[in-house]
Specification:
The protein is mostly helical. 76% of the residues lie in helices and 0% in strands. Helix 4 (48-81) packs across helix 5 (89-123).
Length: 420
């Protein structure tokens, strides 16, 4: 949508801009970065469904935009070998093949490193050395980026999916000290990098020598990305609602449309290549759009939440589950039934809460949660239930893949009550 509309705009300005160039601009500017909006969501405890939708859409946009920009550059190189002014079917097919191979290869490589990290922290005694544990966690995360780049894949996509798996699996295996240290370390890196990149964007507007201002193109781009985002959010939400029991309400869709800020990733993709006049216009336009959307959309997020009557102060599911778990009291050990009865009640309470929430999920989400709870999480983490309970068909293999801490539940109770 962005490429088509901006190509029409390009015909009205005195710039040699081909449709392939506008396709590249569409890929760049499609990378969203709603960091300001998500920070406000977190502070106000906005409905977790909306938070997850905005975050998930941003992650998918970023991953596809990175790989798509590389694929378009590959197509341009293939096209130069033939007739640069004609459509090359062979180059197009090679580009499509490269896109999917790079994307899924990066996802697979990052996921593999995430699984290796989870297994390493589960089946070794590295948790007895918190500093080493934190160092390995960080280095293995970064190694997913390096390996992907060495293999001519996307390092950002690889480290993104490595981080997703580490957050869902590996983090549960860390010692309490490493959990705190790792969380604080990545929060610090996140804060520093965000401030650095936005400072760099602002400074580059006045110091970078290859900016080229075209106010018709810039103004049109601001309008076009709003139109394109509407074409993305509302039709896709409609299609998703056809298969969802818990529908995406219209006020959530409005907030998702408004949350399409542009930022660090779009700027990084734009500044990679500023050789031609068209690419210089792209850089200037992207920088200005990033600054405007962060200031305008970020500043109006809180008032818009109130206008749209979106619930705030809603606790995430995991905190509500923790709140439903009864904390141990001094007199519990002396009560009849001991600790076992209380633990059983707590387990039933948590399981009933999970089952209640499962009813509102889609079939695909329920299938994934079932596989995750039955096999993947018991395999990769010290969480209960164990594979001996969920995968009895594996026989002695399930016992071999279960640690002592996972069987006794000491790891789970120590983590649960300390975090509470």
């Amino acid at each position: 949508v962005i490429a088509s509309l901006m190509w029409l705009v390009a015909q009205t300005i005195s710039t040699n801009m081909k449709f392939l160039d506008t396709l590249y601009f569409g890929s760049i500017i499609s990378a969203t970065d709603p960091v300001t909006t998500l920070a406000i969501f977190s502070d106000l405890n906005v409905d977790p469904t909306l938070n997850g939708l905005v975050l998930g859409e941003s992650l998918l946009n970023d991953a596809v935009a990175i790989v798509l920009c590389g694929a378009l550059e590959d197509y341009a190189r293939f096209q130069l070998k033939e007739d640069p002014d004609s459509f090359q079917a062979q180059a197009f097919l090679k580009t499509i093949l490269n896109f999917f191979s790079i994307f899924f290869g990066s996802v697979g490589l990052g996921s593999l490193l995430g699984v290796i990290t989870a297994l390493l922290t589960k089946f070794t005694y590295v948790r007895d050395y918190p500093v080493l544990e934190t160092s390995l966690f960080f280095l293995l995360s970064y190694s997913s980026y390096l390996l992907a780049e060495v293999c001519s894949m996307s390092g950002i996509v690889s480290v993104l999916f490595c981080g997703i798996l580490q957050a869902h699996y590996t983090f549960h295996n860390l010692s309490l000290e490493s959990k705190m240290r790792t969380r604080q370390f990545f929060e610090l890196l996140n804060f520093l990098m965000e401030n650095f990149i936005f400072s760099y964007i602002g400074v580059s507007m006045f110091t970078f020598s290859r900016h080229k201002f075209n106010f018709v193109f810039i103004t049109s781009a601001v309008l076009v990305i709003g139109i394109a985002r509407a074409f993305n959010i509302y039709p896709l939400s409609f299609l998703l609602n056809l298969g969802r029991k818990k529908k995406i309400p219209l006020n959530f869709q409005h907030m998702m449309w408004f949350s399409g800020l542009r930022g660090a990733l779009a700027f990084a993709l734009a500044i990679k290549n500023t050789v031609s006049e068209a690419r210089q216009i792209f850089l200037t336009t992207t920088s200005l759009i990033a600054i405007l959307t962060v200031i305008f959309c970020g500043g109006l997020t809180t008032p818009l939440l109130g206008q749209l009557e979106i619930p705030i102060g809603v606790l995430p599911d995991d905190q509500r589950r923790q709140g439903s778990v009864r904390q141990p009291r001094d007199g519990d050990e002396g009560e009849e039934g001991g600790e076992g009865g209380g633990d059983a009640d707590d387990t039933e309470s948590v399981e009933s809460h999970i089952n209640l929430n499962e009813g509102g999920r889609s079939y695909l989400a329920r299938s994934w949660r079932s596989a995750d709870r039955t096999f993947i999480k018991p395999l990769l983490t010290n969480c209960q239930p164990t594979l001996m309970e969920t995968m009895v068909c594996l026989g002695p293999v399930s016992r071999w893949l279960t640690t002592e801490e996972q069987m006794t539940g000491n790891f789970i109770h120590r983590t649960m009550y300390t975090e509470l």
